[in-house]
Predict the structure.
Amino acid sequence: MAVIETKTTQVKDDLSGEIIDQNASDSFRFGFDGVNFELDSSLEAINKIREFLAPYAAAARIVEDAPVQVGFPSVAAATRGQQQPRKRAAATPVRSSGPDPAKVREWARAQGLEVNERGRLSSGIVEAYEKAHG
């Protein structure tokens, strides 16, 4: 007589706590306040999250290989009692040494140069500013 072994995988919805069909579920990864999360939930719930976040994602900049910053009060309070990430990367300073970007933008506009409202300034504009200001 042959023995047949069957294995089943169950998915627990992290939002509702219910067991859901594996074919109607997905994992959703996201970052918030410098911490990365993963959520298992129904396709319906994950699609609602994606729809809600779509305008924010469209307006945001993509950051690749950014260090994870942890310890923000809002995340610490939200994740209290939950397992924390094992590895924590050191936070990097927001600004490097150099001229104040707001002053560089103001100077560049006065010179008739085009600069973005935010984000990194081109090295050519920074060099021209530094040259003009000794």
